[in-house]
Write a sequence for this structure.
């Protein structure tokens, strides 16, 4: 009886695979952030930070976690580039502003200890019509809140373009 029942379950499961596979598209269309849009974001970040006399590094990353534009203002330390990249990567990976995760992963051996992730303010995701298309990370201001304010200004600079371009 058990052999018959397990054979029936396996056959039933295998029989449903072609129907499931037939419903899946052959390709998935993923919106991509253009170089020009990434440049606008990065430049808007630098302009916003300069309003407060802040010298920062900024990284604009695509959905795949690859830096598209990296800028360092004249007097910003080199370290700001790596920190801005990690903030952007963290925001993109979790689709959340890094400021919302500052106290989330504090236990030993938690995901917060994974190399390449930074859970301090200054990274924000970039979305278009509900789809994450990348992230921006900023480093170099005295506080993470100032970094994040500049990052948000960068996204705001292209928000209308992103929403208008979305399918």
């Amino acid at each position: 009886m058990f052999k018959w029942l397990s054979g029936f379950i396996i056959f039933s499961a295998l029989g449903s695979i072609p129907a499931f596979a037939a419903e899946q598209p052959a390709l998935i269309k993923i919106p991509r952030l253009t170089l020009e849009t990434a440049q606008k974001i990065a430049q808007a970040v630098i302009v916003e930070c300069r309003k407060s006399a802040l010298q920062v590094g900024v990284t604009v990353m695509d959905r795949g976690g690859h830096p598209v534009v990296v800028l360092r203002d004249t007097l910003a330390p080199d370290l700001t580039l790596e920190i801005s990249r990690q903030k952007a990567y963290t925001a993109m990976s979790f689709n959340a502003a890094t400021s919302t995760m500052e106290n989330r992963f504090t236990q030993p051996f938690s995901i917060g200890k994974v190399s390449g992730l930074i859970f301090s303010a200054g990274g924000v995701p970039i979305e278009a019509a509900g789809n994450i298309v990348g992230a921006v990370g900023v480093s170099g201001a005295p506080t993470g809140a100032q970094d994040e304010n500049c990052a948000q200004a960068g996204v705001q600079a292209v928000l209308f373009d992103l929403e208008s371009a979305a399918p």
Summary: The chain has four helices and four strands. Residues 35-165 form a domain with the Beta-Lactamase fold (CATH 3.30.450.150). The beta strands are 57-62, 67-72, 123-128, 131-139. The radius of gyration is 21 Å.
